[in-house]
Amino acid sequence: MAAALPQFPRVVFTILEPMSLVAGFLGAVYDPAWFVAQQIPQEKPLVASENSIVLAHQLGNMYLGMCLVGLSLFWSTSEIKVIRSYLIALLIADAGHVGFTWYGMGSERFFDVSGWNAMAWGNLGATLFLAFTRIAYLSGIFGPDNAGPASIKPSKKKNKAN
Fold it and tell me: What's the count of helices (H) and strands (E) in the chain, helices before strands?
C-alpha cells in the first residue's frame, strides 16, 4: 500500500501526481483548442485542426486513465516490488515525455526556461520534478520503506505431533 512509502514520495505520488493528471485531463477535454495551441511556447500559436482536437481528447483520456491506474495500484497492493516496478516504468515514460517535448520545442525554446508558458512548465517542470522524485525514492534518498503488511512474515508453528 501507499503507506509503505516514506512520507514525501507518498504525498507526491498519491496526491500531487494524480492532481496534475486530472488537471491535464480537464485542460485537454474542456478546451482542447487552447490545450493544443499551448503545447509549444510561441507568440502566435497555430489554430488547432479537427485532428489535433481529437488527439487532445485522447491524450486527456490517457491522463485520466493514468491517474486511475496509479491510484488503484497505490491503494490496492501491499507489494513494494510492484510499486517500485511501476515507478521505474513511469520514470522511463518521464524520459520519453521530456525528450519528445524537447524535440517538439527545439533546443532554443527548451533551454529558454524564462520563455516557457504554463503548458511547458506542466510538460517539463512537473515531469522533471516527478522524475527526480522517482529517482530519489528508488535510490533510497528518502529512507527505507515503512514496514507494511507485506513485510510481516507469518510465524511457522511447529507440529506438536513430531
Answer: 7, 0
